[in-house]
Amino acid sequence: MRFQSKNDDVDADINLTPLIDVVFLLLIFFMVTTTFSREAEIKLKLPEATSAEQSSVEDNFVTIQISDIGQFAVQGPEEDEPRELINSSLDTLRKAIERAAGDLQEPIILIRADRLTPHEAVINAMDAARRLGFFQITFATGQPQ
Q: Which residues constitute the domain of residue 94?
């Protein structure tokens, strides 16, 4: 003989609403606490020179990086990474060099230009440095393999 229980007529359902709420809260928590690092980095292929001398990095270098399409990034002696400029105008470049130089009276301007960089971009970098009164300009090259 089969006995009937009270729970045979009731279907068991799992309520997913609290689970979905918790997942959304976790998603919002991770989105808020995650830090996204935007590294301003320009890929450069430096021209090679067999007569290049290696110099030690000094504290008074202002580095101007120029990509193969003429995009500029400027790094001062106290900065960890170069800052990419929003445009390639001469005025923007001059202000970025002035900010990177800070209180330095005679910084050395190091131009790191890609081997395919337009000649005009290199001349603009030199012109911006000279308008600020910085006349010690040098170029970075790669060692031949």
A: 61-139
